[in-house]
Specification:
- By secondary structure, the chain is an alpha+beta fold.
- The chain folds into two domains: about 90 residues, no CATH class; about 240 residues, Fumarylacetoacetate hydrolase, domain 2 (Alpha-Beta Complex), CATH 3.90.850.
- About 20% of the residues lie in helices and about 25% in strands.
- The strands form four sheets. A seven-stranded mixed beta sheet has the order 7-6-17-11-12-14-8, covered by helices on one side. The protein has a five-stranded antiparallel beta sheet with strand order 4-3-2-1-5. Strands 9-19-18-15-16 form a five-stranded mixed beta sheet, with no helix packed on it.
- The longest helix has 22 residues.
- The termini are far apart.
Length: about 375
């Protein structure tokens, strides 16, 4: 009997040790930074310190590694499950084992570094009106189109059908079909960089959005396996110009609306998906000059994260580092009475709990 109890105790101890080991990894984020004019790929701990990956990887005393430090963020994402993830764990263990009094030279305070965009995607796709209440508020300002004069809160418009090969509707799906547009990577700026109001454009506002970072080549991805193609999450402010183009030629002009220079603040970092337990339950908050103007959760999405990956990749092949921005909550400035638009001197702050906070000042041109 004693042996049985010893066996049970040993099994419990081993199970506990394994559980502790599996849960012992310090959560981290990943970003691009600049120090003394030189960019580097960094591991972010506790939103306060940054480890230079390449310098740490080659530092004396570090265990030998078979992998070379990734050249950039896309390289890291591609190699993440081929040794990079484990190497990050070793580096973090070494840094934390050193203690605060013996910080290695490859560790810096975040406050001393310039934050760069965490990645520059080849393709950036944004989801239009993916929160029901946002449809209700935007109906107040958009020009009526056939079948769209009244808001539907994301409900299917009259005559809605499947889009063969792109979005197949089920009989019991009451939602409208997803809608996406391209946002130019050339518009990307980093956390802390200024959103510049274009000359003569006075109706510019915010859209605080979650960005999905694609892990590998993705084409016609089924909903059931869509999570496998997501590396992690970042934030995008889908800055929008509501001033129009002066005519109604061809309907909405998404180039003017969404793609001025600096209209895609991105970052500040990328949070690997293993540190976001449920992406469909993230609290969201946007504030302007400290006043909260958007607040809710990702549970309010009309089309979920995995549905968006499915829809996007049925249209265009996405590749490592590409981004899907998932839509915004209600709280647009253009729908308020009176309207609120960006003005020089404003401070924009977009937060998704567990992913980060993206802050940008606003300046005139």
């Amino acid at each position: 009997m004693k042996r049985v109890w010893l066996g049970i105790i040993a099994a419990v101890f081993i199970s506990s040790a394994l559980a502790m080991a599996q849960g012992a990894t310090t959560p981290f984020k990943l970003g691009m930074f600049e120090r003394q004019g030189k960019p580097f790929l960094g591991i972010v701990l506790r939103e306060s310190i940054v480890i230079d990956f390449a310098a740490a990887n080659a530092a004396p005393g570090m265990p030998a590694s078979k992998i070379a430090a990734p050249a950039d963020m896309k390289d890291l994402i591609s190699l993440y499950d081929q040794g990079v993830r484990s190497r990050i764990g070793e580096i973090i263990q070494r840094v934390e084992g050193a203690g605060t009094g013996a910080r290695p030279p490859y560790v810096s305070d975040l406050s001393t570094l310039k934050i760069l965009p965490p990645i520059i995607p080849a393709t950036m796709m944004n989801v239009a009106v993916n929160y029901a209440e946002h449809d209700l508020e935007m109906a107040k300002i958009r020009e009526g189109a056939p079948g769209q004069a009244k808001p539907t809160a994301g409900g299917a418009l009259p005559g809605t059908k499947s889009a063969p090969g792109i979005w197949e509707r089920t009989d019991n799906d009451p939602r409208w079909n997803p809608y996406m547009f391209l946002k130019a990577p050339a518009a990307i700026i980093a956390h802390g960089e200024a959103i510049r109001l274009p000359p003569g454009r006075t109706q510019v506002e915010w859209e605080c959005e979650l960005g999905l970072v694609i892990s590998r080549t993705a084409s016609h991805v089924p909903i059931a396996s869509a999570t496998d193609y997501i590396f992690g999450y970042t934030l995008q402010n889908d800055v929008s110009d509501r001033g129009g183009r002066g005519d109604t030629r061809y309907g909405s002009d998404w180039l003017v609306l969404k793609n001025h220079d600096t209209f895609a603040p991105l970052g500040p970092f990328i949070t690997p998906k293993e540190f976001v337990p449920n992406v469909q339950k993230l609290p969201i908050r946007f504030s302007l000059n400290g006043k909260v103007l958007q607040e809710g959760t990702t549970a309010q999405m009309i089309h979920s994260v995995v549905e968006q990956v499915n829809y996007a990749t049925n249209i265009l092949t996405l590749r490592t580092g590409d981004i899907i921005a998932t839509g915004t909550l209600p709280g647009a400035g253009s729908a308020r009475t009176p309207p609120i638009f960006f003005k020089p001197g404003d401070r924009s702050e977009c937060t998704y709990e567990g992913v980060g906070t993206l802050i940008n000042p606003v300046v005139g041109s």
